[in-house]
Amino acid sequence: MNFDGVSSQVRQILEATLKGVEVSETQGEILLSADGKDLEAVMAVANELRLKVHGKRSSYVVTRNINFTNVCHMGCRFCGFGQHKDSQDAELLSMEELGRRVVEATERGATEVCIQGGLHPDLPGSYYRDIVKTVKQASPSIHLHAFSPFEIYYGARKSRMTYEDFLTDLKECGLGSIPGTAAEILDVEVRKILTKNKLSTESWVEIIKAAHRVGLPSTSTMMYGHVDGPSHWAAHLNLLRDIQKETGGFSEFVPLGFVHYESPLYLEDSRTRPGPTHREHIAIHAVARIMLHGYIDNIQASWVKLGPQLATQAQSFGVNDMGGTLMNESISRAAGALYGQEVTAPEMERMITSAGFEPWQRSTLYRPAEVSAPASVTTLKPRSQWQNEQIPVLEVV
Fold it and tell me: Which of 139, 301, 331, 356 is most buried by a 10 A CB count?
C-alpha cells in the first residue's frame, strides 16, 4: 500500500494494523482525527480490511420499524421524538394495530420487525411481553428485533425482575435480538449532558451483557456529532470491542450521526454542534472497521442519517452493510432527518451495485434471507435529487 504523503504517526499505526496488530484506544483517537492524506490512508486500509472479510458483497435486510409509542417521560435532550402523555401529538399503538403492521410487513417481504418506543409512564412492565406475544401471533416466522437497553432497564424495574430474568422471559415469548441503541456515547460526562445520565454507561453495559448471556444477540451503536469528539469515539469503540471479546454477542456496529434540526439539545445548548462534519462521518466509519476488525466485522451505514449518496460511498471505506429498508422510521424523522422513511429492496440493490458491490439480502443475524422482498412504492428522496450529487470525499462541511 502506498503511504506517500502520510504522517509518520498515522503510517506506523496503519502498517501495524495491516500486520494484524490491534489498534489501541490512543491510536484510534489519532486515526479519528485524521484529515487529508492521512484520512485517505485510513480509508484505504479500512477498505482493504473490508475486502479481506467480505469481498465485494454488501448486505441489507428487509425490515419494518414500528415505534409503538412516542410518549416518554425521560426527556433526553438530544431527542425530538418524545411527547408528554397528555400532548395532542401523543401516540400509543393498540395491540390490534401493532399486529396489523406486522402482518403488512410480512406480506411485503419483511423478514424482521424492529420495535422500539418511548418510556410511557402508564405502561406496566408486562407490556413488553405483550408486544412480543402479539408480534409472534401475527407472524410466527418473522424475526423480532426489539427494545433498547433503556426499555429493558425500564421494563425490568417496573416488573421487579433482574435484567436476565426479564430478558429470558422475553426470549421465551419469541424475542430474537435487541437493538444496541441508547448507547449514545458511553462516557459519563457526555451522557450527563445528553440524558442527565438516566441510563448510565455501567447500566447499558450490564444490560447488553445480560442479553448476550441469555442468548439474545444485539447490535452496537454510537451517536456522534453533538458535544463529543475523537477521544470519546475511540473510548466508545474500545469499550464495545472489550464487550465483544467477552461475550461475542454483537452482530454489527452502526454509527449514527446526530440529527440536530429539531433536537432540543441543539436548539437550547450553545455547546452543541449541528451534527457531524463530512470528514467525521468518513473517519468514524473507516476507523470503526479498523478498530473492530476481527471482533465486530459487520459495519453498517445508516442511509437515514448519512443520506443515500454518502451511505453508498461508505462501502469503499469500511462499510459492508446498508441496513434496513425500514418501511417506517419515526425517531430520526422527528429530529428533522432529510432522507425519508423507506427505500425499497430494488432501490437498495441499485445503491449497492452503483458503487461496484454485490448485493445480498440477509436475515437479522447475517444469514441468507429466506424471503425475497417484492418491489413497492418508495418514499425516499427522489433518486434524481441525489444520484449525481458531487460530494468531495475529503470536504469538511
Answer: 301
Give Cα 119 distance to the centre of its chain: 20
Would residue 380 count as lying in a domain?
no
The candidate with the shortest Cα–Cα distance to 263, out of 254, 255, 272, is: 272
CATH code of 47's domain? 3.20.20.70
Question: How far is Cα 109 from Cα 370, in angstroms, rounded to an integer?
Answer: 10
How many whole angstroms separate alpha carbon 317 and alpha carbon 42?
A: 8
With H, G, I as helix, E, B as strand and everything else as coil, classify residue 230: helix
First to last CA, the chain: 29
Cell numbers at 194, concatenated: 445528553
Residue type, 20: G
- For residue 73, the 8-state DSSP code is S
Residue 162 lies in a domain: yes
> Mind listing the pLDDT tens digit for each residue in 196-208?
767 999 999 999 9
Q: Is position 10 within any domain?
A: no
Phi, psi for 109 (deg, rounded to 5): 100, 5
Residue 317, C-alpha cell as written in the block? 471505506
> Using N-to-C axis directions, what is the helix angle for 8-18 and 25-32, rounded to 10°?
120
pLDDT digits (tens, 9 = 90+) for 54-64: 999 999 999 99
pLDDT average, residue stretch 40-44? 98
Which domain covers residue 170, as residue numbers? 22-366
The closest of 282, 234, 240 to 257, measured between CA atoms, is: 282
Backbone angles phi, psi at 112, to 5 degrees: -145, 145
For residue 122, tell me if it sits in a domain: yes
Mean pLDDT of 234-247: 98
Integer Cα distance of 225 and 31 in angstroms: 17
Chain-centroid distance of CA 308 in Å reads 15
Q: For the chain, how many residues are written?
A: 397
Give the helix ranges, DSSP H, for the chain.
Answer: 8-18, 25-32, 36-54, 95-107, 126-138, 149-159, 163-173, 188-195, 201-213, 230-247, 264-268, 278-292, 303-306, 308-313, 331-334, 345-354
Cell (9 digits) for 86: 397528555
